[in-house]
Design a protein that fits this description.
- This protein is an alpha+beta fold.
- It has 2 domains: 126 residues, no CATH class; 78 residues, no CATH class.
- Helix content is 54%, strand content 16%.
- A hairpin with a 2-residue loop joins strand 2 and strand 3.
- It is elongated and about 85 Å long.
- 13% of the residues are buried.
């Protein structure tokens, strides 16, 4: 018995799929043309930058549209379906979810949308490899998101008379680490002094040097080294 693939469009994604559907053919094709070459994508954020430059949509909405495209590729990749079948199921699900909001849409518009996703899902060297890389990144108990450093001066008062001007002061630093654990964002703080900062800097400098060395080694093998930014 032949199994017919059925998909559902998450409510939070409908707005962005509708924008892509209503986008004219010319900017759609320009976006596809730009992102099919791995040389144009040195960082994950390049997808957002390129789409924004072509469509002039605000950054936040563009970022969400790119997120949806990556989510769709990930669903396709894990479904083990053929591209044509997956794209057809996706467009069918989109038609059902959009309903009356696309009342004036023609069948040829849906055919064009289907063809757009066939091309998107065929970009294995750009969207494909980065989707899989993003899937590998969370394979840690804690995934780093960002860091912040706060510095302040703390006065040292005389023990015998705290009402007079402090006789000394110390500089203290607090390093905030924001990370993701499973699907939850958490943070913690570390107290540092100047020696701790120097030690941390030396450790990071060494890690950067090792990263650049490994990056060159990967390039020598003719393998694309992906630049990924973790996002909150």
């Amino acid at each position: 018995m032949i199994q017919v693939l059925k998909l559902a469009v998450p409510k939070d994604d409908r707005e962005y799929l509708e924008y892509l559907f209503q986008l004219k053919q010319e900017p759609r094709n320009a976006f596809l043309q730009a992102i099919q070459d791995p040389a144009n994508i040195s960082q994950l954020s390049d997808f957002t930058r390129i789409f924004q430059e072509i469509t002039k949509v605000d950054y936040q909405k563009t970022d969400e549209i790119i997120r949806v495209l990556f989510t769709i590729y990930d669903a396709y990749d894990t479904s083990h379906e053929e591209i044509e079948a997956f794209a057809s199921a996706l467009v069918d699900a989109f038609k059902k979810s959009a309903g009356k909001r696309l009342k004036g849409a023609l069948e040829e518009d849906f055919k064009s949308f289907h063809d757009f996703f066939v091309k998107i899902l065929s970009l294995h060297d750009t969207i494909g490899v980065r989707t899989k890389a993003l899937r590998l990144m969370p394979q840690h108990q804690h995934l780093f998101i960002r860091s912040e450093l706060y510095s302040d001066i703390r006065p040292v008062f005389r023990p015998d008379n705290p009402s007079i001007r402090p006789s000394a002061a110390v500089i203290v630093h607090s390093l905030k680490i924001v990370y993701r654990e499973n699907s939850e964002t958490k943070d913690f703080y570390l107290g540092l002094d100047d020696e701790d900062l120097q030690q941390l800097k030396a450790t990071i400098d060494r890690a950067i040097s090792k990263h650049e060395c490994l990056k060159l080694m990967i390039s020598d093998f003719g393998i694309q080294c992906l630049g990924l930014e973790s996002e909150e």
